[in-house]
Structures are given as structure tokens and as C-alpha cells.
Amino acid sequence: MKTTNAGGTVIDEPKSREAVKPAVDKSTAAKPATKPSQIYVDGKFYAEGEAKVSVFDHGLLYGDGIFEGIRFYNGRVFRLEEHLERLWDSARSILLEIPMSQRAMTEALLETIRQNDLREGYIRLIVTRGVGNLGLNPEQCKTPSVIIITAQIALYPETVYRNGLSVVTCATRRTNPSALNPAVKSLNYLNNVMARIEANLAKADEALMLNDEGNVAGALRGITRSVVFEIAAETGIKVSETDITRHDVFIADECFLTGTAAEIIPVVKADGRPIGTGKPGPITARMVARFREMTRETGTPIYS
Fold it and tell me: What is the DSSP string of the chain?
């Protein structure tokens, strides 16, 4: 049996079958904060109603900036170092100088979580080009801005993790790397937004994007994806990376998506066709179970 990861990965079948659950155990998740969220903006904390950026910030005007989405579980930030490395890689690619060290960024991020008294949640880390004028030239932006937002997030209801979601192939193609490499997590997300709109119009849960060659578009250097590879290696499951087409998705025995916000989530229908049995399968169950263990037990401590 083969399981297809929508990024072009084929994984052999494990032996056991377990119920699929979301990575966050909602029975133990921290309750939403009653006080206004505290947001970090350029070295200071502001209540969410007071946190502002200039209308001349090029992150707003042109999508000129980068971001990372990061999860924290059980008082630990999951894969923080990898996320910061990817942020710095994105910055180097677009010639954006982040105005602090990775060590200082780590402390700012941890302190933002502490300010909000959270143990479970999601972090949006943003670096914009900064304030300039209405012209496009980034040389007008003298000082990049750093914004850190924490929140609790549930991208999908728990029933979707149990029952799986549907995807639809969209007409919008993934941006060609020769134009703007999708490995850069830029603030210009219009390519993804248009795909999301197509999925909404088709009443599907997610959009499946293709590249210019008609293959399923590969993801950026996905951190949750890399965790799946680690789990596969430790459990003796063979992984191969290759280009795949819609046909390969249609005939897969299982399929799942990975992402920081979505975590690991099964796909049971593609373009109206059931995948495998039309239910989440054993490989997905194994991946989700082990992923849950890792998120609860590993990471950078917040309150140490």
C-alpha cells in the first residue's frame, strides 16, 4: 500500500491502525486569555487594540516582508530553531536585514508568549521592510519592523481530523521559482489566497495547486513535513520524494497534508474521487499519534 503526501512523497504502509486525532489535546489546552492580547512591535508590547503599523510600511503597501507561523505546546515552542533558520533564509533571499539576532528574536518571542500567559497556541512572527514612501524602492525603508503575535488557533474542527478533508485542484498555478520562489515565506500571499478562493467556490476544504509542468506543486521547506520524515525513519517506513500528478493522488491508498497550523491532517477526497477507502488510513494514524507525542515532549521551554 502507498500513502501520498501532497508535496510529492510516497510512504509505505505500517501495520497498525489507530484513530486519527488532532495534535492539540483540547481537554488540556489552555483556556483563552480574558485580558487583551499583548503584541510585540519593535521592542515594545501593546494591547491588541493599540498595536499598529504605519500606512507607509512596505509590508502593507507591497507585501514586502516575511513571516513564520510557529506552534507551541505544553509550555514548549516546537521546532523554534528550524523556524528561525527558515525566517533568516527568507530574509537573505529578499535582501532584508532582520534588525536583531536570532538569540534576541528567540527571547522576544518567548517573552511575548509569557506576556499572554499561554502554554498552547500559535505564533505569527512578521518582519516587514519598514516605513518608506509610496514608491516601490526598498531603499526608502530605513528600518525593518518586527511584529510578534500569539493566539490560540484551531484551523479545523476536531471532526475533520477524525474524518478527513476534501481537496480540489485549482486553476491557479503555484508561482514559478524563476519569478518568486515559494520557498520564501513572503507577506505576498495572493497566489495562495486565490487558490483558497477557488476551494471555497468549489465547497472543498483545501486547494491542490499544480506547478507549470502540471505536477502537484512542491511545498516550501516544510518543518512539519520534515518531522513526518523523521517519524518515518524511526519507525522503519520507507520514504521517497518524486514528482506526482493528480492521477497519483487519485489512486493513492492514503493522503495527508502537513503544515504548522494544520499539523497533520488526512485527505479523503480529491476532485470528487475518494482516496483509498475514503477514510483516514493507518499511516496517517501512526504519523499523527507520534507527532502528538513529539509536540508534547520536545521543544524550547517557555517558562524555564
Answer: -EEEETTTEEEE--S-------SS-TTTSPPPPSSPPEEEETTEEEETTT----TTBHHHHH--EEEEEEEEETTEETTHHHHHHHHHHHHHHTT---SS-HHHHHHHHHHHHHHTT-SSEEEEEEEE--B--SSS-GGG--S-EEEEEEE---SS-HHHHHH-EEEEE-SSPPPPTTTS-TTS-BS--HHHHHHHHHHHHTT-SEEE-B-TTSSBPPPSS-HHHHHHHHHHHHTT--EEE----HHHHHT-SEEEEEETTTEEEEEEEETTEEPTTSS--HHHHHHHHHHHHHHHH-SEES--
